[in-house]
Amino acid sequence: MTDGPFQRGDVVWHPAPFKSQPAERPFLILSGPPHPFHGTEYAVVGLTRTERPSAIALDQTTWELGDPGEESYVSPWYLFTLKHDNIIRPKGSLTLDTTNEVAGAVASMIGVET
What does each C-alpha distance from 38 to 14, 31, 56, 64, 109 come to in angstroms? Predict the structure, then answer.
């Protein structure tokens, strides 16, 4: 991985929105080159260590690159856009299958019928 542009499936650290104390959180990048501001801005979903209904569990098999660390989950309802310049550092990348699974869950939650 490089300093950017980041690619679909990459997981990056970014300042956590809505926190009163400075904190970082990992985000999965779902957008790619078709996104109109690719390389400057990314569509992302948040990762967490808290298991919740509808969250997608991540384990060793879901990571293509990087150390997943502790057990984590993707929250498909926790959708944002992040600016490239605010990304702190890369964490790794998820497999294409896992990234597509997350994208499908996001699409379903916002009303796209497949």
Answer: 17, 8, 25, 21, 23
pTM for the predicted model, two decimal places: 0.91
Q: What is the pLDDT along the chain (114 residues), one digit of tens a residue?
A: 556 799 999 999 998 777 667 788 999 999 999 989 999 999 999 999 999 999 999 999 999 998 777 889 999 999 999 999 999 999 999 999 999 999 999 999 998 876
Burial class from Cβ neighbours inside 10 Å (0-12, 13-18, 19+) for residue 104 reads middle
Q: What domains can be seen in the chain, in order of their start residue?
A: 10-109 (2.30.30.110)
Cα distance between residue 97 and residue 114, in whole Å: 17
CA pair distance 86, 41, nearest whole angstrom: 10
